[in-house]
Design goal:
The complex is a heterodimer of chains A (about 240) and B (about 240). Chain A is built from eleven helices and no strands. By secondary structure, chain A is mainly α. Chain A has one domain: MetI-like (MetI-like fold). Chain B is mainly α and about 240 residues long. Chain B has a single domain, classed as Orthogonal Bundle (MetI-like fold), CATH 1.10.3720. Chain B is built from ten helices and no strands. Chain B starts with a helix and ends with a helix.
C-alpha cells in the first residue's frame, strides 16, 4: 500500500549541519503569524476549558445528590481520559471533518475527570455548620451552591483547573494534525519544508511551555485574589 | 461510499490481519506495545533507583514536584518532532532513537514522582523498627520501602504507560513505525478518501488503550503485597 505521508518524511533532503538550530531572523519575520497562532492556541484552550468546566459543574452537582451517579461519572470520565488524543480525533474526523468541534470535543472531555473530582471533593469539604447557617438564613439550594459552597470549594477547584489548563495547552499542539494550528502549526511546519527548519519547532515548543507556565501562574494569582478570607485566616 | 462501507472495506483488505506484514493490525499492535513497554522499562530503570535513594534520605522534594509540572507542560508532540529532527541532523537511525528518547522523557516524571511519594509515605516507625532489627540502609530501601511503595509506584507506571500508548500513535507522524497510529496518519494524508482508515485506526488505538488500562488494573490488584491489602481492608472496616 502506498504511504504518501511516510514517504514524504523519508525523502527529506537534510542539509547536513545546514540550518542553525535557532534563527532569530525567522522569529522577527514571522512575528505576526506567531501572534495569530498564539491567539488560536489560547482560544482552543479557553473553549475546551470553559465547556469542560460547565459540564463538570453539572456532573458534580448531580454527583453530590446521588452517590451512584458519582461512581458512574468517575468511571466514565476515567475511560474517556484513557483514550489517546490521536484516536479521539480520528474517531471524530469522519463525522465532524477537520473542524473546531473535532479539536475541542476531546480536549474538553480530558478535563472532566480532574474537574469533577476536584469540584466534588471541594464542596464535600465545606463544613456542615456553614451549610446549616446559610440554610438557616433562608438561602435557597441554588444560592447556597453559588454563594457559599462553590466559593469555599474554590481553592480545590482552581487546583484542578490549573492541572487541566496546563495539560490542555500541551495537547492543543496535536490538533495541528487537523489543520487547527495553534502553536502545533509551527512544530509541523519545521519538518514540512524541503529542508527541515528547527527554528519553528523550537518556537512552537518554547511558546507552548511559556503559555502553560503563564496560565498556571495567572490561575494561581486569581485564586489568591478570589479567596481573600483564606489569607486572613492564615495570617 | 459512506464511512461505514469505507471502514468495512479497509478492514477486509488482504494482509490486514497479518502478524508479519506491516499493513496488518496484529503486526502494528505488537509494534505499538513493544515500543511502549520498552520505553516504560527504560524509564523505570532510570527513574526508580534515584527516586528510592532520594526518598530514603528525604532529599529532592522540589525536584520531584518540578519534574511533574515540567512533564505536563512540555508538549509530547513537539518533543517527538524535535528529537526526530536532531536525530536526522546527527545521522542516527530516525525510526528508533528519536521516538524512544521522547517516550522515555515523557515516562520519567510520573515514575520518579510516584516512587518518591511512595517512599516518603512509609512510616518513620516502620523504618526505625527495621533499623532496630539490624537491617542495613540498603536492605531497608529494597526490602521495606520499595515493597511498601509498590502500589503508588504501580499507579505511576499506569499513568506513564497510558501516556506512552497515546504518544507512540502520535509518533507515526515522523516515524515509519508508530504502531497503530500509522493508519490514522496515513488516512489523514489521503484526505476524504482516508476516512475509513482513520476511523478504523482510531478505534484500534482506543481499544488498545482501554485494554492496557484493564490489564494494568489487574496487575495493581495482584502485585500489591498481601500485608498492605489486609491493612487497607482493616482501615476500611474501622473508620
Amino acid at each position: 500500500m502506498k504511504r504518501p505521508y511516510a514517504g514524504r518524511v523519508d525523502h527529506y533532503v537534510l542539509a547536513d549541519g545546514g540550518r542553525p538550530l535557532f534563527e532569530w531572523r525567522w522569529v522577527q519575520r514571522n512575528a505576526d503569524v506567531i501572534a495569530l497562532r498564539l491567539g488560536e492556541h489560547l482560544s482552543l484552550t479557553a473553549t475546551a476549558l470553559a465547556i469542560g468546566l460547565v459540564v463538570s459543574v453539572l456532573l458534580a452537582v448531580l454527583s453530590l445528590r446521588w452517590r451512584w451517579f458519582y461512581s458512574l461519572t468517575l468511571a466514565g470520565a476515567g475511560a474517556l481520559y484513557v483514550i489517546p488524543s490521536l484516536g479521539a480525533f480520528a474517531l471524530l474526523v469522519p463525522f465532524f471533518g477537520l473542524s473546531f468541534a473535532t479539536a475541542v470535543i476531546p480536549l474538553a472531555t480530558y478535563t472532566l475527570l480532574i474537574l469533577v473530582r476536584n469540584i466534588v471533593t471541594g464542596i464535600q469539604q465545606v463544613p456542615g455548620e456553614v451549610r446549616e447557617a446559610a440554610l438557616g438564613m433562608g438561602f435557597t439550594r441554588l444560592r447556597l451552591l453559588l454563594r457559599v459552597e462553590l466559593p469555599l470549594a474554590l481553592p480545590v477547584v482552581i487546583a484542578g483547573l490549573r492541572v487541566a489548563a496546563v495539560t490542555t495547552i500541551g495537547l492543543v499542539t496535536v490538533t495541528s494534525m487537523l489543520g487547527m494550528g495553534g502553536l502545533g502549526f509551527f512544530i509541523r511546519q519545521g519538518i514540512q519544508t524541503t529542508t527541515p527548519n528547527p527554528t519553528p519547532i523550537i518556537v512552537g515548543i518554547g511558546l507552548s511551555i511559556v503559555l502553560a507556565v503563564v496560565v498556571d501562574l495567572l490561575l494561581w494569582v486569581s485564586e489568591r485574589a478570589l479567596t481573600p478570607w483564606a489569607r486572613k485566616v492564615r495570617g | 461510499m459512506n464511512i461505514g462501507d469505507q471502514a468495512w472495506q479497509w478492514l477486509n483488505q488482504p494482509d490486514r490481519w497479518s502478524w508479519t506484514d506491516p499493513a496488518g493490525i496484529p503486526y502494528r499492535t505488537v509494534e505499538h506495545l513493544s515500543f511502549s513497554s520498552l520505553s516504560l522499562v527504560v524509564a523505570a530503570v532510570l527513574a526508580i533507583p534515584p527516586a528510592l535513594w532520594l526518598g530514603h534520605h528525604r532529599r529532592g522534594a522540589l525536584l520531584a514536584g518540578s519534574l511533574v509540572n515540567a512533564g505536563r507542560a512540555i508538549p509530547s508532540f513537539g518533543l517527538i518532532i524535535l528529537c526526530w529532527y536532531l536525530a536526522s541532523r546527527w545521522e542516527l537511525n530516525t525510526s528508533f532513537w528519536p521516538l524512544l528518547v521522547a517516550l522515555v522523557a515523557l515516562a520519567l516524571p510520573p515514575l520518579f514522582a510516584n516512587t518518591y511519594a511512595g517512599v516518603i509515605s512509609v512510616g518513620a516507625d516502620t523504618v526505625d523498627a527495621a533499623r532496630g532489627t539490624g537491617h542495613t540502609e540498603a536492605q531497608i530501601m529494597l526490602r521495606i520501602e520499595l515493597p511498601l511503595a509498590l502500589p503508588v509506584i504501580l499507579a505511576g507506571a499506569r499513568v506513564a504507560f497510558l501516556q506512552l500508548v497515546a504518544t507512540v500513535a502520535i509518533g507515526a507522524i515522523v516515524n515509519d513505525g508508530g504502531g497503530l497510529g500509522r493508519y490514522i496518519v496515513d488516512g489523514f494524508a489521503e484526505g476524504a478518501g482516508g476516512y475509513g482508515e482513520i476511523l478504523d485506526g482510531g478505534i484500534a488505538v482506543i481499544v488498545l488503550a482501554l485494554a492496557c488500562e484493564g490489564v494494568f488494573s489487574l496487575i495493581t490488584r495482584f502485585a500489591v503485597p498481601k500485608g498492605l491489602t489486609i491493612a487497607a481492608a482493616a482501615r476500611a472496616r474501622t473508620p
